[in-house]
């Protein structure tokens, strides 16, 4: 289903003397076989501190919620099987209602977004709008009732999970020209998002001039279909950092981490030209090599404070990079003789002490940092 795009293989990252104090040791503490279908996404709940050790996975037409307990134990809390047997979820995100009820939001091949009320164990809403499959969903940390979705239909959509309204559609004249594979909210600038995709670009968008519509979505009492959804046709910045599909991007402050199929994650700064919106220059700051990571739809994750990033590869190995150091420091390289399947996504716990991975063969692996002596 997820095609491969081969490029020249990267070399093993150079590890310098800086790693002595930074290196961490992790060991496998659990392995679960969830099913036979590939697992495409896994994520801890960073939205609500009450559930810091709760995570979820999606694969096939199933979404499952787990809890990480002491001693490597993983407990199943809830499981949802979509009524459509042909559904295949590719992405999930944690969100919450305005009253604090925890939501798990999932989307995939059918283009329908399911908002699961995990507090009451039922479907809260289903969002229909995208014309093609959904590749990623992310939640606005400052307003966790807002989510954004990236789709094969070349658009990004902003939704209100409380009211079910599609507020904004980022597409059109200046939009993506192929599948949008990843999207992320800026951590502190509530108006900004970044998206990337199969047109090899990363685009930064601003919601500032449309913010009244975002506010209106919380008080709208008419049918969601009657809401005056607005199109945002022009990004404020377009970056060509990569020469191939870009399948994961995350903000690191005002910088951006992005990944293509070139066996590396790139950290760069967008420098805009005030006189010509949409244009600017890219200052590449650092590169984090990830060998055997030359197929698309492999996504990296970070701990809550963005101290480190963890990414798997097509050989079942995980690379953990220190993000706050220059030159880059490889904290750990994780491998297990029985983990040979492609790792589609990782999840780092709040403090980075636990790392989870979900694999093409339907397995979940848990790694825990060894106690320092």
- State the distance separating the first and last CA atoms: 45 Å
Strand order of the largest sheet: 10-11-12-13-17
CATH architecture label name:
7 Propeller
CATH homology-level superfamily = YVTN repeat-like/Quinoprotein amine dehydrogenase
Main attributes of the structure:
single chain, 373 residues, mainly beta, Methylamine Dehydrogenase, Chain H, five-stranded mixed β-sheet, four-stranded antiparallel β-sheet, 2 helices, 29 strands, 3% helix, globular, disordered N terminus
Annotate the secondary structure layout:
Layout: H1 19-22, E1 26-33, E2 41-44, E3 54-59, E4 62-68, E5 74-81, E6 89-96, E7 102-108, E8 112-117, E9 122-128, E10 134-139, E11 146-151, E12 156-160, E13 165-170, E14 180-185, E15 192-197, E16 202-206, H2 211-219, E17 230-232, E18 237-239, E19 248-252, E20 255-259, E21 264-272, E22 280-289, E23 301-302, E24 308-312, E25 318-322, E26 329-334, E27 343-348, E28 354-359, E29 363-369
Parallel strand pairs: 13-17
Antiparallel strand pairs: 1-29, 2-3, 3-4, 4-5, 6-7, 7-8, 8-9, 10-11, 11-12, 12-13, 14-15, 15-16, 16-18, 19-20, 20-21, 21-22, 23-24, 24-25, 25-26, 27-28, 28-29
